[in-house]
């Protein structure tokens, strides 16, 4: 009885989580603008989506910022993790505690504080680079992405076999050779995970982007948030459906690759 109750409870939880998304996907094929009355099947909103220059521009900005922020924050976070890992215990704890502050802070605090900082640089110090626009948006995303990359890489560094690193140095390898041939392969999964998290956070962010973006660098989240002040276009339903399907396919591909790699590992161990 407990087994069936647990399964029913799990089904209800998943239904509660995904029913709104399913409803959104269904009405993305609605021929009318109504969000409650079905007017017939149509691809009208998908066609209009790819003809809307404002939405296409926001998608371009969102993807560009997410990719750039993910790459840069991955490099910075990995370098920071290597430096922090080489510290002594007490300084390491202090630096990790400071690193956790941006991830624990509410987004509204980070957004407002970064906006004020950029305005100070731009207006008081006359540094035009910090005028609200694509540059400030990218800096803001790198700021909140980097701590998550660091937190993803640190556990892999703790699991790393130090004897291999020391053996490579004893055998004549220099620091760079040791890093690329010994350290990097062992922490690569943490680096990839951190990059995916950074990319996802950048795609998903609204609050920080709202305060640090300019009029020509609105992300998709900021654009949709602005639409809530008026009637939201059904084109957004079509866009959200495409994004959901893309993420779902990406997760399936990643899980299949991991499953295949695990099976190959088991076969090699069996031999």
Quick synopsis:
The chain has 271 residues and is mainly alpha-helical. It is 79% helix and 0% strand.
Number of helices: 11
Query: Percent of residues in beta strands?
Result: under 5%
Helical/strand content category: mainly alpha
Instruction: Give the mean pLDDT.
Output: 87
Largest beta-sheet characterization: none
pLDDT < 50 stretches:
none
Spell the H/E element sequence: HHHHHHHHHHH
Q: Between the first and last Cα atoms, what is the distance in angstroms?
A: 43 Å
Silhouette: globular
Q: How many E-type strands?
A: 0
* Overall radius of gyration: 23 Å
Portion of residues in helices? over 70%
Task: Write a concise keyword list for the protein shown above.
mainly alpha, 271 residues
Please render the helix and strand layout as text.
Elements: H1 2-27, H2 44-49, H3 53-85, H4 89-104, H5 107-124, H6 134-159, H7 162-170, H8 175-204, H9 207-212, H10 220-227, H11 235-270
Q: Can you offer a commentary on this structure?
A:
The protein is mainly α and 271 residues long. It is 79% helix and 0% strand. The protein has eleven helices and no strands. The protein has helices spanning 2-27, 44-49, 53-85, 89-104, 107-124, 134-159, 162-170, 175-204, 207-212, 220-227, 235-270. α1 packs across α11 (235-270), α3 (53-85) packs parallel to α6 and α7 packs antiparallel against α8. The two termini are 43 Å apart. The model has no long low-confidence stretch (mean pLDDT 87).
């Amino acid at each position: 009885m407990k087994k069936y109750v647990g399964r029913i409870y799990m089904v209800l939880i998943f239904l509660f989580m995904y029913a709104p998304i399913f409803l959104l996907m269904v009405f993305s094929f609605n021929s009318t603008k109504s969000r409650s009355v079905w007017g017939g099947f149509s691809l009208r909103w998908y066609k209009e989506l790819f003809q809307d220059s404002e939405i296409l521009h926001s998608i371009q900005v969102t993807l560009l910022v997410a990719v750039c922020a993910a790459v840069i924050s991955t490099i910075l976070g990995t370098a920071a993790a290597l430096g922090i890992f080489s510290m002594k215990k007490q300084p390491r704890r202090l630096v990790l505690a400071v690193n956790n502050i941006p991830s624990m802070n509410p987004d509204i605090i980070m957004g407002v504080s970064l906006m004020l900082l950029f305005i100070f640089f731009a207006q008081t110090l006359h540094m035009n680079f910090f005028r609200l626009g694509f540059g400030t948006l990218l800096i803001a995303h790198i700021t909140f992405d980097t701590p998550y990359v660091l937190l993803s890489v640190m556990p892999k560094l703790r699991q790393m076999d130090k004897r291999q690193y020391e053996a490579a140095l004893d055998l004549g390898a220099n620091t760079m050779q040791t890093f690329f041939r010994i350290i990097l392969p062992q922490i690569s999964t943490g680096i990839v995970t951190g990059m995916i998290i950074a990319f996802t956070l950048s795609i998903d962010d609204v609050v920080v982007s709202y305060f640090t973006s300019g009029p020509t660098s609105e992300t998709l989240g900021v654009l949709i948030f602005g639409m809530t002040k008026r009637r939201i276009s059904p084109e957004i339903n079509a866009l959200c459906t495409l994004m959901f399907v893309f993420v779902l396919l990406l997760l399936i591909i990643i899980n299949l690759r991991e499953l295949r790699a695990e099976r190959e590992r088991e076969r090699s161990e069996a031999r």
